[in-house]
Amino acid sequence: MKNPYTILGVSQDAEKGEIMKAQMFAMKKKEYSLQEIHIATKQLLDPAKRLAADFMFPAKIRARRMQLIQSKLTYREINVNVLNENAFDSLK
Questions:
Q1: Entry pTM
Q2: How many other β-carbons are positioned within 10 Å of the β-carbon of residue 70?
Q3: Interval 27-77: pLDDT, tens
Q4: I need a surface site. Which of 3, 18, 78, 80 has the fewest CB within 10 A?
Q5: How far apart are CA 37 and CA 80, in angstroms?
Q6: 3-state SS of the chain: helix, strand, coil percent to 5?
Q7: Residue 87: DSSP 8-state
Q8: Which burial class, exposed, middle or buried, applies to 35 when counting CB atoms under 10 A from its CB (0-12, 13-18, 19+)?
């Protein structure tokens, strides 16, 4: 199974209209066979097959390195009782 996103040249958050336009452009390019383009389009338009394609071909995520957060408070300066009293105020 080839990556349908690279065949059609769309991102993983592409909508139906974008996929259909990409199908027409891919047919004009003739980089892939018509059968491969048709299969890739069917995969991306069917929600179950698209979910399978998302897991088989995950998008490359650029993760940023975590940075340490400098806190001005020390552990002894934090009043834990006040935190516990106010913990459920946002749920009211």
A1: 0.64
A2: 5
A3: 999 999 999 999 999 999 999 999 999 889 887 765 555 566 666 656 555
A4: 80
A5: 60
A6: 60, 0, 40
A7: T
A8: exposed
